[in-house]
Design brief:
Strand content: under 5%
Shape: elongated
Low-confidence stretches: none
Oligomer: single chain
Order of helices and strands: HHHHHHHHHHHH
Number of domains: 3
CATH superfamily of the largest domain: Tetratricopeptide repeat domain
Number of strands: 0
Helix content: over 70%
Distance between the termini: 52 Å
CATH topology of the largest domain: Serine Threonine Protein Phosphatase 5, Tetratricopeptide repeat
Structural class: mainly alpha
CATH class of the largest domain: Mainly Alpha
Largest sheet: none
Radius of gyration: 19 Å
């Protein structure tokens, strides 16, 4: 981080920015997003070329539902780094604004760039959600099926999230046996995840 900040801010400001960024990061981790925002906005003005600042500011805006502000900061992060790590968040902001064409473009870019498994899984969930928002439930299910049907010995969070999502889609489409199947997989791996136990019970 220091080398990045040295390029983005004057030498005399680097130490101060590092300390304030660390404070903001701690506030973010404790879900005190409104506490983090003023500091991060100040830092973005002081060091607009600091990708770590723009990234965290974008994520904080996302947490408080300020979609357009989040998009601006996360696109700045992409321009500074070329990273696609926050593309799922960027896509979710566009989805929240009803910009489904933008969601599709972002997801297509994720696929082209060979993003890591966790990032791609999150992007897939947002894309499926975007399709479902438009009533295209069967397409959303088809998108998730290849990922959820792979054999998994030790399920990770991304597997559980995708199982839960497709269970929800099957329930919404009226296929309760399939919904039950995927909710049961989630319960077997982590019964404390979200409201999955209640969702499963409601299907009986």
């Amino acid at each position: 981080m220091s080398s990045e900040l040295r390029q983005a801010a004057s030498a005399r400001d680097v130490a101060r920015i590092e300390l304030r960024l660390a404070d903001a990061a701690r506030a973010y981790e404790r879900e005190r997003y409104t506490d983090a925002l003023p500091t991060l906005r100040d830092l973005a003005k002081a060091a607009p070329g600091a990708s770590s600042v723009r990234e965290l500011l974008g994520l904080t805006y996302y947490r408080v539902g300020r979609w357009r502000d989040a998009i601006r900061e996360l696109r700045a992060f992409v321009e500074l780094t070329g990273s696609v790590d926050q593309h799922p968040v960027l896509a979710d902001c566009e989805r929240a604004l009803g910009n489904h064409d933008a969601v599709e473009e972002i997801f297509a870019e994720l696929r082209r760039t060979g993003a890591g498994s966790d990032v791609l899984a999150e992007g897939r969930l947002v894309m499926a959600g975007s399709l479902a928002d438009r009533g295209r439930l069967s397409e959303a299910i088809e998108l998730l099926l290849p990922a959820v049907n792979r054999p998994v010995r030790r399920p990770l969070e991304r597997h559980l999230r995708q199982w839960y999502a497709i269970g929800d889609l099957y329930e919404r489409s009226g296929d309760l046996p399939r919904a039950r199947e995927y909710f049961m997989k989630v319960v077997a791996a982590d019964p404390e995840m979200s409201n999955v136990v209640e969702r499963l019970a409601s299907l009986r």
